[in-house]
Amino acid sequence: MTQRDVRRAIVIGGGIAGPVLGMFLRRIGVEVTIFEAREAPAEQEGAFLGIAPNGMNVLADLGVAEAVQARGAPFVGMRFENARGRRIGEIDQREAARRFGAGLVMIRRGALHAALAEEAVRRGVAIRYGMRLTDVDRSEPRQVVARFGEGGGGGEARGDVLIGCDGFRSRTRACAVPDAPAPGYTGLLDFGGFARCPGAPIEPGWSVMVFGRRAFFGAFAAPDGEIWWFHNGGEPAPGRGAAPGQLRERILALHEGDPGWIADVVRATPEVLGPWPLHDILTMPRWHDGRVCLIGDAAHATTPHAGQGASLAMEDGMLLARCLRDEPDPQQAFAAFERARRPRVEAIVRQARRMGNRKAVAGPVAEWLRDRALPLFLRLGAAAQERAYAYRIDWEARAA
User: Fold this and answer.
1) What is the dotted CATH code of the domain comprising 8-73+102-183+281-361?
2) How far apart are CA 105 and CA 112, in angstroms?
3) Can you tell me which residues the record assigns to a coiled coil (predicted)?
4) Which residue has the higher pLDDT, 360 or 153?
5) Residue environment code for 345-370, b if the CB has 16+ CB neighbours within 10 A, otherwise e
6) Residue 324: exposure state from Cβ atoms within 10 A (0-12, 13-18, ≥19)
7) Which range (198-202, 351-355, 393-397) has the least confidence?
């Protein structure tokens, strides 16, 4: 690609995919402005997530892995238990750096957003907050126009391409690919929190995952002993707002009869975060239209069950920038990107859906059947996880 083909890029969304894409585009000489709907950096937003080795390798290629690691915590491994506290499996990650080139890092979502935004700005990416996309005008053959609401000054921005990195509720998708399916609710609500609970039987760096009688509970012990936890419970329709005390009691009721330390952690949590209804997009007819392209959850929303959402978004940013570097026409670049990415990401989205389906059961018979199948399920899941971790993008290779 010659530099004059794509000189200015509009990026919608400043969470994970946007800053990573912006930094790779700056590497190939593209002027980038990120437009973020939030009024300010969301440093306290959400709970936490894991950046898998494949995602950390993308950050290492950018030279920002250390900045992210400094705000996160190294991950040692995970143990799986049933509702009676019996161990049914373990995945040891202590050799991940040797095997995959990087280890998994646990990090609070807000800290990751802040680290990526700071690095992007330092490398010349402009970020404008309070800019809520209202419309995308593609009437000009060699330009795309983004229009914004009154917040942040409103107005419009013109670029050679527009990339939607604005999550599973993507406004870019609604404007540019209106026939795309809406994200589907998976039947699970996600909650989380941070607690000091010295009695919790978790070693620093390890996670314990409990397939409970009615719901799933996962907890990670940070190096300072703080417990980072999440809960997945079944709900026929996405939950509405509830008082914090009601949320806590709801979670405790779903884990009645499960290992007692779960209730101790939930009770020790100053603020229960959530709920977050979990949605995904199993497939979409296309990810691009004209000079507009979708990446990350805007194109292939996945649930957190496979631990790959953030890492897939990072891979997307790297590969799309490489395609724009090597293809003379943006639409050809978008098509090449989609061809390369679709098989991998849709397989992981399906895997995450299957994993989520085993987290909440409807009664004792379903629990008994699930627990009998869990050892095989965990072996298959571990093999899929290794394949996901081993994936690498060669920046120096030419886009196919």
Assistant:
1) 3.50.50.60
2) 11
3) none
4) 360
5) bbebbebbbebbebbbbeeeeebeeb
6) buried
7) 351-355
Write down the pTM of the prediction. Answer: 0.94
Q: How much of the chain, in percent, has pLDDT values that exceed 90?
A: 82
Q: What is the pLDDT of residue 291?
A: 97
Map tokens 């296309």 to a residue: 286
Please, which pLDDT band fits residue 341 given cuts at 50, 70 and 90? very high
Q: Where are the domains of the chain?
A: 8-73+102-183+281-361, 184-279
CATH number of 184-279: 3.30.9.30
β-bridge mates for residue 324, sequence order: none
C-beta contacts of 375-382 below 8 A and 24+ residues apart: 375/88, 375/89, 378/80, 378/88, 378/89, 379/89, 381/351, 381/355, 382/89, 382/91
